Amino acid sequence: MTTSERGLAILDIDGTLFRTESATIPAIRSVFGEHGLAPPSEMEVRQFFGKPDEEFQAWLDGRVPGGRAADIAAAVWEKEREMVSETGQLYPGARECLAELRSVVHEMGICSNGPEAYVRTVLQAHHLLEFFDRVRWRSEEDAGKVEMVADLLRDLRSRPAVVIGDREDDVGAARANGILVIGAAYGYGGRGELEGADGLVDDVSELPPAVRRLMAVSHA
User: Fold this and answer.
1) Contact (Cβ atoms closer than 8 angstroms) between residue 171 and residue 186
2) pLDDT per position as a tens digit, 69-82
3) Angle 98-101-103 from CA coordinates, rounded to 5°
4) Are residues 60 and 126 in the same domain?
5) Fewer CB within 10 Å, N or C, the chain?
6) How much is the pTM?
């Protein structure tokens, strides 16, 4: 097998590599407290992890009175980027997982619904940039992950390709682009959002062998 045939892994960030609650929950609680607002429960906030920012903004519009939602959102995003470095945590073994994955596949990419500033902060603060050949964050022009994965596939040509993520849009993006998908069942979507994945894992350490198995079957 030549290196060009060793494949491509496209990974999500939130709920796949990064424990979003370790930064987002303290950021929201801090900002809400500073503005005299009752903080939401963790369960209320977790539903937005890994989803486009406009969904969180829409929730804030209904949650924050007095037309202050936009200001609160800006303060939360600024505080969140600060907390990514201060309290943010990768899933245990995530860096070791990525190092092993680099020995399994030829190329690796990131596909995240997070905006550029957030994605860059997570990857830089936790020293993950070295593992990836291309990073794709969500821009205002993007319709969703189907388009973003397609963009990565045009730039990163190693095959077979597999998407790894914890949300239904990760599964949908892989399927729409005709590639494999592994569901991170330990993330925020849970098994309920990952129906139709080619494989499920319950811990980040299980990703390299799962990718290796799928690549072997695909080449068989």
Assistant:
1) no
2) 999 999 999 999 99
3) 125
4) no
5) C
6) 0.93
